Amino acid sequence: MSNIRVLLVDDHDMVRLGVRTYLLTEPDVEIVGEANSGELGVELVQQVKPDVVLMDLVMGGIDGVQATREVLAVYPQTKVLVLTSYLEDEKVLPALEAGASGYLLKTVLGDELAIAIRKVFHGETVLEPQVAAKVVANLQKPKPVAPVTDLLTEREMDVLRLIGQGMTNQQIGETLYIGIKTVKTHVSNILAKLSVEDRTQAAILAIRKGWVDGESKKG
């Protein structure tokens, strides 16, 4: 079996040194690169294509949350394992929402870190117990239903209103003075954001909710 290829992203040299020194003792782990910033981390991911990225959260430039999004955008095959000193809600939940497969504190023991790397590599989620408790608490909170205006952009609302009026993509494009490809992009975004499968369902939902009773903007 080939080694698990790991990229270290942390702006503290001593942290990277300590993590690298320990992981070099693990026979199935290979350090394929190091980055001292989120931006460099994203660049290196494209170059070395790691299996797992150990990601710090608070760094100069883009933070670890944004870096996680960009890493998974350019190389979705990799797994991001957050390794940070921060346990605040404003760090934990955004990191997981960005696609991180795990969240550990830097107080973790070396053998626990190695085990976590193997787990996320194999598709498991690894959370510090305190982090897991925060996730559970957040899931238990009642979620307010966002108004459609918070889900869709103004232009997507324009397109949705015209879909509700039964217009084709061609007619929508002519009405809003936009290209057919742009219309298709808006329609795809609308379906995804409203969690419906097709434009008919979107139109029914829009009419039922009263979202299509206004006049569409042009231009």
From TrEMBL:
SUPFAM superfamilies: C-terminal effector domain of the bipartite response regulators, CheY-like
Xref: InterPro entries: CheY-like_superfamily (IPR011006), NreC/VraR/RcsB-like_REC (IPR058245), Sig_transdc_resp-reg_C-effctor (IPR016032), Sig_transdc_resp-reg_receiver (IPR001789), Tscrpt_reg_LuxR_C (IPR000792), WalR-like (IPR039420)
Alphabetically ordered keywords of this record: DNA-binding, Phosphoprotein, Transcription, Transcription regulation
Residue ranges constituting the Response regulatory domain according to the UniProt record: 5-121
Modified residues (4-aspartylphosphate): 56
GO MF assignments: DNA binding
Domain HTH luxR-type: 145-210
GO annotation terms (biological process): phosphorelay signal transduction system; regulation of DNA-templated transcription
PANTHER family in alphabetical order: TRANSCRIPTIONAL REGULATORY PROTEIN YDFI, TWO-COMPONENT RESPONSE REGULATOR
Protein name: LuxR family two component transcriptional regulator
Organism name: Tumebacillus permanentifrigoris
